[in-house]
């Protein structure tokens, strides 16, 4: 009875019962249950992948709903990995699901990756992409990559064979997160991550079954404004690979956020825990931006007039910068760090948007 739902793909030339059995025996770990992760999970599950893990420490917010199609209003404030798995457990009884309600980090990456055949990165920031890539290289795991920026998306398959490229070959130099913002800053039409996520799922199915030709040492670009796509060949960049950690011990010493952004990032919980005498919480949003934050150590220094506040900022022993989503605060923190290199400066990850899910939001 269960096999009936795969009838249409089993009859497909090149896949057949053998390919379907490979899907049933396969295990895939999806990093991120957001705009890319949702369509990836939908079609991996529909195709019959036997074991699927979902890693995401984020919670569903209202602004997610235009593209993160697994969630609805009833899911607001709940963990994405757990809600995604709950959605599918009621839908497909023949798949083993595992939710990991945490972000992937240097101290948990090895454990998360080790029991899966294939890794798919649906994250939306550079530190995580480099972290996942380096972990996959060390663990010798194939990695399917995808990304979206405004009206363009890209897809590739890394680390599949001995001579395969990886993410560091595509982007040898770590860009700062402030250079290319994510969809929280630039916006996105929900259909585009849907298209790119489906292409990533297709590459996963091809990799598992041997159907067709995967995007090995090639990257596919798709433009949603003109519906055109093109491919670019990539080749190993050995100098950039030398900058990657060469073993797990070196990997666990990496600070990918600091390497990409030059400023250490903290969650709101960490910021409140570290705050003390001489601390200044700096809001770099413009004065008319909402919602306001009320705090005894709050100092407003709008980014448009930022340099005019240097004298007051210099007086603080430690500064915690924040904005609406976390990009402008990094720019402000970097600017002040260049002026006062010995000062303790942090940027709060996710800005005010992330405060909604902090355990301290009512305290």
Automatic annotation (TrEMBL):
InterPro entries: Rhodanese-like_dom, Rhodanese-like_dom_sf, ThiF/MoeB/HesA, ThiF_NAD_FAD-bd, Ubiquitin-activating_enz. Its EC number is 2.7.7.80. Homodimer. Forms a stable heterotetrameric complex of 2 MoeB and 2 MoaD during adenylation of MoaD. It is an enzyme of class 2 (transferase). The chain crosses the membrane at residues 26-46. GO terms for cellular component: cytosol. Pfam families: ThiF. This is Molybdopterin-synthase adenylyltransferase. Residues 278-360 form the Rhodanese domain. Keywords: ATP-binding, Membrane, Nucleotide-binding, Nucleotidyltransferase, Transferase, Transmembrane, Transmembrane helix. It comes from Algoriphagus hitonicola. Catalyzes the adenylation by ATP of the carboxyl group of the C-terminal glycine of sulfur carrier protein MoaD.
């Amino acid at each position: 009875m269960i096999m009936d739902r795969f009838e249409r793909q089993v009859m497909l030339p090149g896949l057949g019962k053998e390919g379907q059995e490979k899907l049933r025996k396969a295990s895939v770990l999806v990093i991120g249950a957001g705009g890319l992760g949702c369509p990836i999970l939908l079609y991996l599950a529909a195709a019959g992948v036997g074991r699927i893990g979902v890693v995401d420490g984020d919670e569903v917010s209202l602004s997610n709903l235009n593209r993160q199609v697994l969630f609805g209003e009833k899911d607001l404030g709940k963990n994405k990995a757990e809600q995604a798995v709950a959605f599918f457990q009621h839908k497909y009884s023949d798949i083993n699901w595992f939710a990991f309600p945490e972000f992937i980090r240097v101290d948990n990456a090895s454990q998360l990756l080790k029991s899966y055949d294939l890794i798919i990165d649906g994250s939306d920031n550079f530190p995580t992409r480099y972290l996942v890539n380096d972990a996959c290289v060390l663990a010798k795991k194939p990695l399917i990559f995808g990304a979206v920026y405004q009206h363009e998306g890209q897809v590739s398959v890394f680390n599949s064979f001995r001579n395969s490229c990886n993410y560091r070959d595509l982007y040898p130099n770590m860009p700062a997160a402030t250079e290319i913002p994510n969809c929280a800053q630039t916006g996105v039409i929900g259909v585009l991550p849907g298209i790119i996520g489906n292409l990533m799922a297709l590459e996963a199915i091809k990799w598992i079954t041997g159907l067709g030709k995967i995007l090995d040492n090639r990257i596919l670009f798709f433009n949603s404004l003109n519906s055109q796509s093109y491919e670019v060949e990539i080749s190993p960049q050995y100098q950039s690979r030398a900058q990657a950690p060469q073993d797990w011990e070196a990997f666990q010493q990496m600070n990918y956020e600091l390497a990409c952004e030059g400023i250490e990032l903290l969650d709101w919980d960490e910021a409140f825990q570290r705050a003390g005498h001489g601390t200044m919480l700096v809001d770099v949003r413009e004065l008319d931006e909402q919602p306001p934050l009320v705090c005894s150590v709050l100092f407003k220094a709008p980014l448009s007039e930022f340099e005019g506040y240097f004298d007051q900022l210099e007086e603080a022993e430690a500064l915690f910068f924040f904005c609406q989503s976390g990009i402008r605060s990094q720019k402000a923190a970097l600017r002040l760090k260049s002026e006062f290199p010995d000062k303790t400066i942090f940027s709060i990850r996710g800005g005010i948007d992330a405060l909604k899910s902090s355990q301290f939001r009512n305290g």
